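Input chain follows. Return structure tokens only.
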Amino acid sequence: MKAGNEKGMALITTMLLGFVAMAIVAALMTFMIYGKKTSVIEERYTSALEAAKGAANYIMNRLSTDQYMESDAERMICVGETTLCPCYRVTWNPDLNRLECPDGKPVDRFDLGSYSNIGDYQIEAFIIHKDTTSGGYDIYAIRVVSSRIDRPERAEIDFIYRTSPPTTP
């Protein structure tokens, strides 16, 4: 081989090794950036989920203590577009496939009051279904939705909760 060819081969080899090294570095940087984004998204989702869990605990606590309240004003309130009433008075209308207050107007969610905003999250709690057993237990199917006010993070929890039958004094 001629001396000029060896220098050319060395240059080509060096350039190839440089491109391979750059590709490896680019792949590692991409992996690190997307890995960090994923962990930030998971952290935000976890925050939204914790806010939803807090609202679910609040709802269960309120429903379990409603029977001991002296007035309807102290009880958990269910709301619709044009009405509100204490949740224990809500019944399922199978003909219209909806929940209704005693006045026949539909309701679909709980009034969470000051708990409708927890930190940066807006909380909504929907009543999917309610049934009363022959033993006097109220069974609620509930969906709690927690969404961040300024970002798209969102968490949903669906659960079923059974209250104790009303006690007679």
